[in-house]
Design goal:
Shape: globular
Protein name: Transposase IS200-like domain-containing protein
Number of domains: 3
CATH class of the largest domain: Alpha Beta
Mean pLDDT: 83
InterPro entries: Transposase_17 (IPR002686), Transposase_17_sf (IPR036515)
Radius of gyration: 20 Å
Helix content: 40-55%
Largest sheet: 4 strands, antiparallel
Structural class: alpha+beta
CATH topology of the largest domain: Alpha-Beta Plaits
Domain Transposase IS200-like: 12-159
Order of helices and strands: EHEEHHHEHHHHHHHEHEE
Number of helices: 12
Oligomer: single chain
GO molecular function: DNA binding; transposase activity
Distance between the termini: 42 Å
Number of strands: 7
Strand content: 5-15%
CATH superfamily of the largest domain: Transposase IS200-like
CATH architecture of the largest domain: 2-Layer Sandwich
Strand order of the largest sheet: 2-3-1-4
């Protein structure tokens, strides 16, 4: 029986809610796997003509809200730049490449396929296994901007709440609000187009604050599916007008003190890395992560998380 064709809007950018589940039993996506999957999403979001609006990576599935731009938005200079990013500056870029990749890199199915295949290869190698990792083909639905979009994004961010993993979305670093809070939206991965244009708000921090308010208020409503946010937590956030203080940000980001393999000044981290990099099985230079909220402090992930 032939598969149903995916809905697309070829004449304008379209927002999709994507859901993909694993084929394995239990919860095969642990912390290290979630970090890797997010790295892969981040990488391909810089190749494809997409904006990442939100995500939640759970133990056996993941959600992604993405805006995909049609073929007409793939201008030659931008395709060429992404081609160099993908294949290197020295690889020739010709007319055939322009035709091929302007279509490929504006295709939702190709975007998700590359993410899933890349992760499958990583997972199988890491766990010394063969075979399928993902289950049935991913689900996707077109989402209207505005009120529908912000509700859908809140639904995604509330996944770890409904699952009873954390009390607040910010406590879960593999969802949008957790990523905003714990990393300061590292590398600009997330667009802050939360469907709130009708509020006429253009200050990024204020947009995130209002979105956080919407998520909290929505999360406190019992929809009959999974756990809800503790009303005491919501009330406490209300009193703070849903702002996150500097001390709160530091507390969220202090996970680096437990998740890092090395932490300290940049020169110190580099010195230690030079002494242990032979254990990584790679000659690549390591990029160190600034610890948000602490001036001059850097971290390197544990060796097991590379």
């Amino acid at each position: 029986m032939p598969r149903n064709a995916r809905f697309t809007l070829p004449d304008r950018p379209a927002i999709y809610h994507i859901i993909s589940r694993t084929a394995l039993s239990g919860f095969p996506l642990g912390d290290i796997e979630k970090d890797k999957l997010l790295d892969i999403i981040r990488y391909f979001s810089r190749i494809y003509f997409v904006d990442i609006l939100g995500f939640a990576i759970m133990g056996n599935h993941w959600h992604l809200a993405v805006k995909v731009y049609p073929h007409e938005y793939a201008y030659r200079d931008e395709v060429k730049e992404r081609f160099a990013r993908r294949y290197g500056e020295d690889v020739h870029f010709g007319d055939q490449d322009m035709e091929k990749f302007s279509k490929k890199w504006t295709d939702l199915s190709e975007f998700v396929r590359e993410i899933k295949q890349t992760f499958s290869r990583y997972y199988n190698k890491r766990h010394n296994r063969r075979g399928f990792f993902w289950g049935e083909r991913f689900k996707s639905m077109i989402v209207q901007e505005g009120h529908t979009l912000v509700n859908m994004l809140a639904y995604i961010d509330l996944n770890p709440i409904r699952a009873g993993i954390v009390k607040k979305p910010e406590d879960y670093r593999w969802c949008s609000l957790g990523y905003h809070t714990q990393t300061g939206n590292k590398d600009g991965l997330l667009s802050i187009d939360f469907g709130m244009k009708e509020w006429n708000e253009f200050n990024p921090s204020e947009i995130v604050r209002k979105y956080r308010q919407f998520v909290y208020e929505t999360g406190a409503v019992d929809a009959g599916k999974g756990k809800v946010m503790d009303k005491k937590i919501v009330e406490k956030a209300r009193k703070k007008n849903y702002k996150i203080s500097r001390s709160d940000r530091f507390r969220y980001r202090c996970r680096y003190f437990t998740d890092s393999g090395v932490i300290g000044g940049k020169d110190f981290v580099q010195e230690v890395f030079d002494q242990v990099k032979h254990l990584l099985g790679s000659k690549d230079e390591r990029k160190f992560t600034p610890v948000g909220g602490v001036e001059g402090l850097y971290s390197m992930k544990r060796l097991g998380q590379t």
